[in-house]
Amino acid sequence: MSGQSLCALAQTLVISSPAKLAALWFPEHQRATANMIGTMSNPLGLLIANVLSPALVKTAEDIPMMLGIYIVPAALACLLATVCLWESVPPTPPSTGAANSTSESFLHGLKLLIQNKAYVILAICFGGGIGVFSSFSALLEQILCANGYSNEFSGLCGALFIVFGILGALLLGLYVDQTRHFTEATKIGLCLTSLTFVAFALVSQLQGQTFALAAICSLLGLFGFSVAPVVMELAVECSFPVGEGASAGLIFVLGQVEGVLIMLLLTALTVRRTGPSFSTCQQGEDPLDWTVSMLLLAGLCTLFTCVLVIFFNTPYRRLEAESEGSSSPRMCARDPRNISPTQVPPLETPGLTPPDGALEEAPGPASLSKGHSEWAETMTRDI
What we know:
- By secondary structure, this protein is mostly helical.
- It has helices spanning 2-14, 17-25, 31-56, 63-84, 96-99, 106-115, 117-145, 151-179, 182-203, 210-223, 228-239, 244-268, 291-311, 317-334, 370-382; strands spanning 271-272, 288-289.
- The chain has a two-stranded antiparallel ribbon with strand order 1-2.
């Protein structure tokens, strides 16, 4: 329990880091892809552990050996994080957003987030989506075994869910980096996810539907799991200039809270199966009927999606700020009010001849002669 508690504490420092890393170290046309790689590394590690653990552990005596093997990647990550990382930011910010990524304090940033209607809708709805997927992943084995599916098949469905989620995130990250269609990609992905959840709620209560369930779990990962990195970028865009860690981290916090509530609700709605039992569950208890719970899960996913699609709309504030920042030097150079007398170009103006020596190297403002000053002021006014 102490080890699990330490891992949980560490998760709060790591879970929101991909959005911050992408914002500080990558330009705007690479941020979504960088965020995707950082975000998907977490489920990739879960997938590797879920595949490797059964291969390493054949008896109870093998568990210490498995834990010893897992110390190696943990120690390597600790070494890299403490010895090889020396800089929090690059020497030169890759974008205007990176230069302003820490412009708001944490508490003031939280206040701005609460007052941001678009962000509140996104956080509640996608946080609910995280809760739905967390409940789905945690209860998948119990749901399927009650209808005669083996634990190995449940593990295969979980693996397909993660693999297709990573594949979809890769493709979607590259797409939104080029098109900036964060909102459109999120809404379409969640709509397809809701339809797939409805299909899972119905098919999971039937026997002998291995191929259909495997395909549905793959589509759940492809449509829903892959949207997570895009939503993290969208949260930063709609809440700029609030720090990326605060805007992305708050969504994950809400997702964990909603996940706990949804999981408790789903388990409370289960009832003992009264009909013929096809259960392969190994808990030694009577099989449970998950029909109502699965319909509720699909309904919650559909509700969160509908609210997001109908009510969420936001400008991309960070991209707008970066666009204004990149164009402001040119605008300032064209503004006559920002032209000093020493920067006046030698234009040929009819009826106005500069005094002798005026086109030579311009002196400093303090040493301008009266003739030079009058000529420069006239030129500035004409421009």
